[in-house]
Design a protein that fits this description.
The protein has one helix and 40 strands. The protein is mainly beta and about 500 residues long. The strands form nine sheets. Strands 1, 34, 35, 36, 38, 39 and 40 form a seven-stranded antiparallel beta sheet that branches. A six-stranded antiparallel beta sheet has the order 2-3-4-31-30-29, with no helix packed on it. A hairpin with a 4-residue loop joins strand 22 and strand 23.
Length: about 500
């Protein structure tokens, strides 16, 4: 039986074509108008949109995913490889890097006691939960506080902290109505700042209040600053480069979004970087010295309007806009440990999207395959070769990073490049197989994906020319066989001669 390995010509695939990557991930890349590369990676489990994302203390990115009846926490490397996925302890509302080297998330309700919980996750996935008392609202946010403790917020007007021993302390926020604390952030003044939405919900008497941005000290003293619009919904909040706190607000009645900054003493300034119909959401400090902001659009504004993220300089001027190539809304936003911007898409396609601020060098991935003889099974050796172009005319540095092969739609374990190559040894059955290879890039080079390579193993009929008959009175040696690939050798031996030989006499 002969092993035949056939393969199609393979070359770089840097466009919007999708292929499976690690842990069921898919990747798509596209260039923005200014040459910035946006690369999307799907989550684990595959097909679930991601919501929040944060740069973890362990040098990886952490995100939470929501699905009907379940939630997950993913850990992915800065080059997009999903390293681990963990089932979350109930639906998740927020995620943050802790001061203790763990990642923390706010669980809306645990599966066993139905209580809201704040949960820590160690880098290797061990989870410890801290339940809040019953009746204290729904958790909305979690962050590392200025005192080295974890702080959380909830509907019903509560902000609290968890001590190193696990003791929970809560502080009520003085105001009227059904208060919803949206997000928390630590300021430059040793206090925590939060956004409060009262514009769209009412208490039992029907009262609707004015949303605010607030400040709370570590001993619970609260100051509120109402939004000037009186109708806006306060959303994301973070510390700016200028020492002020930046936050977003969207007014349904005005149909516009604003980005505010507020000094530690409460003086507000606002900017309007979002085009009409856009809703500003999460925001973060970028590694490029700009503030980055999520902008989503209502479908009523016009068909085909894509959600996007925007870079705003410290003076409030919008300096760059990048459209989300997928169909889901942009949710979370974070500055990654790789010096790039990452955001999440809550659709079922590319859940994690990297905005490459380095304009790295392009790469090409090619595949080749040869038959590999084995004792019991058909084997093929598939080699992925990654090459990169020079950067700015300088010599090209060596490629590092990881490649993931996908064999018939199932990802194999990530393999590290050695001198620009890596090889996969696969056992093949007697049918056609499809293989792709995805390179995840490094600090210098962009990721890329090969075109599919097709393997076809055929068992041709046993050729008559490979059959042989030999006779002799002593030992017999047959002519050489064709030994390419695994072979089945059948020897039929018979003897005839004097009866005395058969009797052994």
């Amino acid at each position: 039986m002969k092993t035949i390995v056939r393969f199609a010509a393979a070359s770089a695939a840097l466009g919007l074509g999708l292929v499976l990557g690690p842990a069921g991930a898919r990747s798509a890349s596209a260039d923005a108008a200014d040459g910035t590369r946006l690369t999307g990676y799907a989550a684990q489990p595959n097909g679930i949109g991601a919501v929040g994302i944060v740069s973890g203390p362990d040098g990886n990115l952490w995100s939470y995913l929501q699905a009907p009846g379940s939630a997950f926490v993913d850990k992915l490397s800065p080059n997009g490889v999903v390293l681990s996925g963990y089932a979350a302890d109930g639906a998740v509302a927020d995620i943050a890097a802790g001061p203790d080297g763990d990642v923390w998330y706010a669980a809306v309700a645990g599966p066993f006691d139905n209580l809201p919980e704040v949960v820590s996750v160690t880098p290797d996935g061990r989870q410890t939960s801290f339940a809040l008392p019953a009746g204290d609202g729904v958790l909305t946010s979690v962050t590392a506080g200025p005192d080295g403790r974890i702080w959380f917020a909830a509907t019903g007007g509560f902000i609290g902290e968890i001590s190193g021993t696990g003791a929970v302390t809560q502080f009520p926020i003085p105001d009227q109505g059904d208060q919803s604390i949206m997000r928390l952030a630590t300021g430059s003044d040793g206090a925590l700042w939060f956004t409060q939405d009262l514009s769209s919900s009412s208490d039992d008497s029907g009262w609707i209040g004015v949303s605010s941005v607030g400040r709370i000290t570590t001993d619970g003293a609260v100051t509120l600053y109402p939004l000037p619009s009186f109708t806006g919904v306060a959303g994301g909040i973070t510390l700016g480069f200028d020492g002020d706190v930046w936050f977003t607000e969207w007014s349904s009645s005005l149909g516009a979004s604003k980005v505010f900054s507020i000094t530690p003493s409460g003086a507000m300034s606002f900017f309007i970087p979002v085009q009409t119909g856009g809703r500003a959401g999460a925001l973060t400090r970028g590694p490029d010295g700009n503030m980055w902001i999520v902008e989503n659009f209502d479908t009523a504004v016009g068909a085909g309007v894509h959600h996007q993220i925007a870079a705003v300089d410290p003076g409030g001027d919008q300096v760059a806009v990048y459209q989300e190539p997928g169909q889901g809304e942009v949710e979370g936003l974070a500055a990654g440990p790789d010096g790039n911007i990452w955001y999440t898409d809550d659709g079922s396609g590319n859940a994690f999207v990297q905005v490459d601020l380095h304009h790295g060098a392009a790469t090409t991935v090619t595949l080749s395959a040869v038959a590999s003889p084995s004792t019991f099974r058909q084997h093929a050796l598939i080699t992925a070769r990654v090459t990169g172009s020079a950067v700015g005319g300088s010599p090209s540095p060596a490629l590092t990073g990881w490649v993931v092969f996908t064999f018939d739609g199932f990802p194999e374990i990530a393999q590290q490049l050695i001198n620009g190559e890596t090889t996969l040894d696969v056992a093949t059955s007697l049918e056609a197989h499809t293989v792709t290879a995805q390179y995840f890039g490094d600090d210098t080079y962009l990721g890329a994906t090969s075109l599919p390579l097709t393997l076809l193993v055929e068992p041709p009929p046993f050729a008559a020319s490979e059959q042989t008959t030999a006779q002799g009175s002593t030992s017999v040696t047959t002519p050489p066989f064709n030994t390419t690939g695994p072979r089945l050798l059948v020897a039929l031996v018979s003897a005839d001669g004097p009866k005395s030989l058969l009797r052994g006499s």
